[in-house]
Amino acid sequence: MGSNPKGRTTMEVGADGVAVITIINPPVNSLSFDVLSSLEDNYREALHRDDVKAIVVTGEKGKFSGGFDITAFGGIQGGKGRSVRAQNTGYVSVEVLTDTVEAAKKPSVAAIDGMAYGGGLEVAMVCHARISTANAQLGLPELSLGIIPGFGGTQRLPRLAGLSKALEMMLTSKPVRSEEALSLGLVDAIVPADELLSTARRWALEILERRKPWVSSLYKTDKLEPLGEAKEILNFARAQARKQAPNLKHPLVCIDVVEEGIVSGPRAGLWKEGTEFQGLLHSDTCKSLIHIFFAQRGTTKIPGITDLGLTPRRIKKVAILGGGLMGSGIATALLLSNYPVILKEVNEKFLESGIGRVRANLQSSVKKGKMTQEKFEKTLSLLKGALDYEGFRDVDMVIEAVIENVSLKQQIFADLERYCPPHCILASNTSTIDLNLIGEKTKSHDRIIGAHFFSPAHVMPLLEIVRTQRTSPQVIVDLLDVGKKIKKTPVVVGNCTGFAVNRMFFPYTQAALLLVERGTNVYQIDKAITKFGMPMGPFRLCDLVGFGVAVATGSQFVENFPERTYKSLLISLMQEDKRAGETTRKGFYVYDDRRKANPDPELTKYIEKARNISGVTIDPKLTKLSDKDILEMVFFPVVNEACRVYAEGIAVKASDLDIASVMGMGFPPYRGGIMFWADSFGSKYICSRLDEWSKMYDGGFFKPCSYLVERAAKGAPLVSG
Asked: Transmembrane ranges (predicted)?
């Protein structure tokens, strides 16, 4: 892959003898090959010119640099080694930065406005001082892409910010704001934006005159603890990394690289950083996370919709129908982005409960230090309660979030059509019901759309935007804009039972139930699935959402896809004994006072009863399944359904299904999403396994869909291109 040919740096030398090198590569001044090559050329010129006394590095238009150009990773992955000169490979090695900039006899100062991420911060740390504005943010987010900092960040950040904070910044990929950066010593001063360059120029000259310290961060040691203490910090970080990300190698590699620099010196650390960086760049984890990075940014590109030149209309007021868990969560998400909200309920008691939930959600932010009391009160003042539709006459969007009852939703949408203005968007948060059915009694099909949030709605990052064949492109563009403003990742999907996420994953629990009724242990299944990287297994998830929701959702699929659903009586039998999941302290697990889940020996009797009624017998092979077999038997039916969703055009792109699986169901992002992960096995293998199980067990449930069969016959990947 190439880099942006317009990426470059410019250099201007002032009368004061300071050369200002500016990074120019919109929109975030990323460090493409062109930029890095130009940066080196400008630096060498500045160092050789007699009229240049000192150097300032900055970024154009209020952004220092968003870091290395990720689109160029493919080019680097194709290369070998690391200490290669820019003119031969198109990119600058860390040794060039160290030897050309840091070891130069002319001082350099980084003038940071806006973001200094990844390679951008690494360039800044090579300089001898850093001056920032109040809105600057500094961070090394490389680990979120499956790699480690590769331009010296693992060595310089601990020496500037301290070991503990440096490890925290790298391992969490979270940036720090300028005030914290100043207190850490990562920046040397904070100044107004209009004084940034003049201050940086003056600072550089004062370094030259020895009135400010001339600091080579690579050899700075005052922030590093004694070796024994440093090793304790590193070992604690390792233990945390293993606990929080047991499937990931690169956080441990990052810690090892930091340790190498502390134990053997910074030059040895740089060498190890380079070697490990190249190795990680070729890893499956890196490829998966980079795929997710681009897939997430591609969800808002909808052919035939976002390429029509439509401008989003301003949504000034939103109404929510239903103040339950979903409605209150949606209201919270909107309020946090300063949307005035009307929350409607059917009676005073329900309305008080709904407003109370919103208040509790916001207070949680106050307790966590994410919101001040003043901001809390101002945000809550944007919420108004209602028991009728009188206040709906000037709303721009309504989101219905009542129980999954078709006739109730139909009545609500008929009422909304009467009371809301003609331009008002009529959205439903339904998770499974056909939108055409919901809008059957209206004449407003062009403004009816699905706005499916995931619980808890103010926390979960996905917004499933469901369009019918009659939904106006303008309405879709409007909702995409709202999704962006409330910090959700929107995925536009077609109208069908379960839409994308719930439809893809309905076989998830059903496959697990099939295995249990034929002899596989419930807790072994959940353990294998969580070990794979899911937040929880299918049975723990059932307990969390509640048996009522699980049965209601499952019945939609039994009704609409009877030929390929697995019908189990297990959950219904447990419901008869007043088990409903976590809320009743008993489900597939039993729960103590702290809601901790524990295996329940009584579960066996329900499994045996379900088995007897259904006439299912234990299969000895399924009592001894490996974790690999469990994963395949649970997830391959999900892949099969995802292939149907893709082939039917419900999803615009296969990568949208990857994002939906990661953000809607918690599929591990470091595996690239459901379709990307499936292609690591190959269509032939998945098809043959499903075909094998189809012959052995419930035929329709495992039967490969026509799209999968076609891809397997060609030996082609599931996703083209």
From this structure: none
Q: At what angle do helices 325-336 and 348-367 cross, to 10 degrees?
A: 50
CB 366 within 8 A of CB 372: yes
What is the Cα–Cα distance from 346 to 212, expressed in whole angstroms? Answer: 68
Cα-only R_g, the chain: 29
pLDDT > 90? residue 552: no
| Distance (Å, whole) CA 391 – CA 385 | 10
User: In this structure, are residues 219 and 103 in contact, taking their beta carbons and an 8 Å threshold?
Assistant: no
- Is 122 one of the catalytic residues? yes
- Nearest of 297, 355, 295, 296 to residue 323 by alpha carbon: 355
Whole-number Å distance between alpha carbons of 157 and 170: 9
Give ∠ CA 648-649-655 in degrees, rounded to 5.
120
Instruction: Give SS3 for 443.
Output: coil
**Bridge pairing between strands 137-139 and 129-132:** unpaired
Q: pLDDT for 366-394, tens place per residue?
A: 999 999 999 999 999 999 999 999 999 99
In angstroms, the CA 197 to CA 54 distance is: 13
Catalytic residue among 12, 40, 102, 142: 142
DSSP-derived secondary structure letter, 611: H
Considering 40, 122, 273, 582, which one is annotated as catalytic?
Answer: 122
Over residues 492-501, mean pLDDT: 93
pLDDT single digits (tens) 560-571: 899 999 999 999
Q: What are phi and psi of 187, to 5 degrees?
A: -120, 160
Tens digits of per-residue pLDDT, 236-295?
A: 999 999 999 999 999 999 999 999 999 999 999 999 999 999 999 999 999 999 999 999
* SS3 of residue 172 by DSSP: helix
**411 secondary structure, DSSP code:** H
Whose tokens are 């499916």? That residue is 452
Q: Is 142 a catalytic residue?
A: yes
- Mean pLDDT score, 664-678: 97
- Average model confidence (pLDDT) for the chain? 93
**614/698 Cα distance (integer angstroms):** 12
Q: Which two tokens stand for residue 427?
A: 């959205």
Stretch 669-675: mean pLDDT: 98
Cα 601 to Cα 607: distance, rounded to the nearest angstrom:
11
Q: What angle do CA 671, 675, 676 make, to 5 degrees?
A: 45
**Residue located via tokens 């690289």:** 257
pLDDT digits (tens, 9 = 90+) for 81-95: 333 333 333 345 666
The C-alpha atoms of residue 43 and residue 205 are separated, in whole angstroms, by: 17
Rounded CA-CA distance 112/104 in Å is: 21
